[in-house]
Amino acid sequence: MLKPAKILDPPVPDTTASGERYLPISMACLQPEYRAPCDLYLKTGGRGYLFFAKKGLDFGHSHRARLQERGVTHLYIRDEDSALYFDYLKETITEIVRNPACQSEQKAAVIHSACQDIMSRVIADPRASFINQAHEIITPTIDLIVSDDTATRHLIQLTAYDHYTYTHSTNVGIFGVALARLLYRPNDFRKIERMGAGFFLHDLGKCRVPIEILNKPGKLTPSEWSVMQRHPAEGFQMLEEAGFLTDEAQIITLQHHEKDDGTGYPNALDRDNIHPLARICRLADVYDAITSDRPYAKRKSTYEALKLMKEQIVADIDQELFEHFVKLFRN
To answer: Which spans of this chain does the record mark as coiled coil (predicted)?
Structure first.
């Protein structure tokens, strides 16, 4: 199957000494059938950028192969070209998802790369325009998951690679929508679409948590844990300020760390007061965390994670919902 490019270091936006701002884009999002949407640059080390391709270049397989041989996974664009790149990304993934001649495996790979790309941008710079862009990329993703069983299976398989915060958000979004499809299908696509943004953006508030706390290898101090527990409310506030706080996103963002026994946060809700949508997100969040390499724990296999969730993580998991979740991993 198609695998996403391996990311050795999470690419981040960068501002040069002269004040020019460059944004990373995944090479997997540049499709050989389309022309380059704007000027493309290579990072040369430090804060240097080398012009690579002019807007309108027929970015074909030979360009991609040459870069891959050099170990390049990301190119860069100027900040002022971000709108051009986003329009290109939205157009290409929409066309690919709707193209009946395109294989489900390719659709899944393109969608997964696009979601990672836009989520990395939102986490690094959560301005309202980027949240809007994320929402517009999430919509065709939800459409693909709801309409194509084979593509959904490929998306589930693609979640096994690379686990930075933005990848975790992408994975939880995919799991959340796929599970919601099992529970709500064939009723209301619009309902799944509204909740989908909440699944993908559930951890947006983590961009306000200091990186040393997010990546701390040991146990958090009480003061550090207090900071970490603020991220659901921070995410709620950011979505509200950006104008994307649907009822579904509000519930998911605020409640995805609540537990049935009342030991969750931020409001210590008990089982009877936790919304089903938050339960879906919590389940996806727990699974992706267990199957990821974290600063304090090595990743577990799918089998090990599901076994652990069924037998030991009782306070976090709705067991009836869990039985539906397991179906996502059956071929």
So the answer is: none
